Amino acid sequence: MLPSGNGWFRRTVLLFVVVLCGTAGLYAEQRSGSIYWAPENATVTGHEVDRLLNFIFLLTVSVFVLTQAVYIFYLVKYRRRDGVKAHYFHGNTKLEIIWTAIPAAIFIGLVIYSNELWERIHRPPPPNALQVGISSYQFGWDFRYAGADGSLAMPDPEKISMENKFGLAEGDPAAADDFTSAELVIPVGRPVQILLNSRDVIHSFYVPEFRLYQDAVPGRTISWVWFETIRKGEFQLACSQLCGQGHYNMNARIRVVDEAEFEKWYREKSAKAQAAAAPPKIAENPTKTTL
Amino acid sequence: MSALTAESAREVPSPSVHRSGFIRTYLWTYDHKMIGLQYLWTALAFLFIGGGLALIFRYQLAWPNTVVPVVGHFLPASAAVDGVIIPQGYNMMVTMHATVMVFFVVMPMLIGAFGNYLIPLQIGAGDMAFPLLNELSYWLYVLSGFVLIGAFFAPGGAPGTGWTAYAPLSSVAAYNGTRVGQSLWGIAIFINGLSSIAGATNYITTIVNMRAPGMKMFRLPLPVWSLFITAILLVLAVPVLSAAAAMLFSDLNFGTSFFRPAGGGQPLLWQHLFWFFGHPEVYIMILPGMGLASEIISVSSRKPIFGYAAMVWAMVAIAFLGFVVWGHHMFVSGMNLTLSAAFSVSTMFIAVPSAIKTFNWLGTVWRGSIHFTTAMCFALAFVSMFVIGGLSGIFMASTPIDLFVHHTYFIVAHIHYVLFGGSIFAIFGSLYFWFPKMFGRMLSEPLGKLHFLLTFVFFNLAFFPMHNLGLAGMMRRISDPTIYEHLRQLQPLNQLATIGAIGLGFTTFVFLYNVIRSLRHGAHAPANPWHSNTLEWTVPSPPGHGNFPVTPTVYHGPYEYSVPGMEKDFLPQNEPAPAEARLHSH
Fold this sequence. Notes:
Chain A has helices spanning 5-30, 44-77, 93-121, 259-290; strands at residues 130-137, 140-145, 179-181, 184-187, 191-198, 203-207, 212-216, 222-228, 233-238, 251-257. With 291 residues, chain A is α+β, with helices and mostly antiparallel strands. A two-stranded antiparallel ribbon of chain B has the order 1-2. Chain B starts with a helix and ends in a 65-residue tail after the last helix. Chains A and B meet through helix 1, helix 2, helix 3, strand 7 and strand 9 of A and helix 4, helix 9, helix 10, helix 11 and helix 12 of B.
């Protein structure tokens, strides 16, 4: 009644080998760029994340290869053969203790390593960090810089509305010369701290090259994310938290440029913003008095 | 074996003794076996719905913005225009695929079908403790299915907020544009929860109170243990989801603001409630698979399960720890950072019992006499696939790595290795194993082998490349990756995954054909085709009404295979060991 294991087994192994080789060939055919691994890292902490990633990868691959090798070896060796009876035993306490203790020790080590790095990634940003306000909405991003005075007005999530996209307090002197941008431009090598807000639903700040992900939660300002880039380049900021029908296309450009180029861009944007801000201020006053 | 059938044949009444009409037999029955089969067929139907949805959106991912072949032009306007999937339609299909697979395929199949069918038979009981509640729980499941599918026909279409339905996207109609669809989703989840709670209560009561004489807790077959622990998880976790669904419904329709910050609510509250249910849920969907696979592996290795007690305690440990790891879904959600670190610790700890189980399966095949039946092939593959899913989980458990791979295809790969490679492989294996008992016919082994082989190959083809997609930075739940410069070059991987998925979809028809053919023409199944020890194999296939003509007495544990000193290599639980058998009782 039970099918004879042997012939079938040999055929199966053969088929597997054929399929595996075929798949490998398919893979090789497609090789182009970093299709199999993470894109090149662009931040200081990203480098450490990569080290941890490689470590866990090596660890898991060794565990996988080792356990599967033993497993497949057993499956071949202990396949049913006429006249050979299975050995009768219910287990082995010593072995149980060993294979409880070893994984536990590995996991404890891993959690210490991980959380130490987690702690380091999230230590307070250095005082010279460039602060950028990020306001996310269905379906896009606005970025806000401190402007000429170098001080960024702190957002108040409760004040965020369609008119007040960043939730700024009325008459906040720090807000006066802030300017906004549709792209995130940052100088290479300078720490950047982001202040994350959302105007509607949860969005997320995700840049694979930065090894960074953080949700933007409506009603709150998340200010613990900061990073320091190590190379220039253009990246894409993508929302990675399903946020509605336009989610798939909610992205923005990130440009990491050298300090000189950044200064130039900053000055231009700042001047333009100040010029634009001046006339409406006069127009704004009468409406306020009527209220 | 012949001795065994002859012996039990004496007192077995013919199944036809208990005759009733079509409705009382197939639609409204108090017989746990028929209720199990009701779950089985319904969940199988949902498998085709959920799988079909997956194929449609996989097509969009591989060849974005082209007409979906065959079905494209039949899709509703809320999902596709001129046969091309629109972004919101994509979100809907992703949402419905996951909701259907989790709540309407895997849970009902493992818990509803195998739970109902096997628990009374394996503990030596005539039926469940509450037969009416049992049938009611099935019909609540069907009702919730209709409500969920109804969402497709709601104005605005089905919900598109993901099966996790993160608030406030899900809870504010202005943000999601599908007030009715999302509300129906909430109702469906609520009713489905009632069904789960009713079923779980029944299982716990039955297992605690109705075991046959001599069936001590530590003589229970592992499927029963796993379902017992799962039932406890269900009773504790599902009410939390039901409460969350009710709050969501209220936010959507009555203007409350549990989750909307503008009204004083907290968006993260939804996530805490959802994952407080959601993480035990992961184990709800894998523990029964572990139990079923353990049974098949032990029987087909002709060897006692290695470390029975360790297996049980590992499941108990998983159940306890399962309630304190939900925060690992929220490392980067805006939750307190120290809390993330704490959840990372508990998450690493829950990996230990899973490792223990894996080593015990290895120990079980070690020095066995392995019969490669189709059921065994699926069970063996279950172990390997579960190992891959478990190992990829370690990446996400490490908080800094989660910064990188959170919400990418890496996690999509992970969940499918656990849920498909784990749960669905266990389901297929169990179907091959218990089909003879359920229907009195053997499934075709050659067709089964073909089914297994194709499933194994196409499954890995579909889901393994997703690890690479995730590492390369591809986000979940985006309908068109080619919009992003850094993702465009990954299209070959996306196409490979889609080809695998299509293959996997078609392979299911091999299984379906096998089932239909075997139901009519399959070889008649003897009472105990696999020479198993558990009680369901001591009665005819299929068992008659009331299961056991005489309540069996249990003399030893369920895994006494290849006992030295005995002629045959198995010893049913209701047979006292012969004097010459050198039994180590556990």
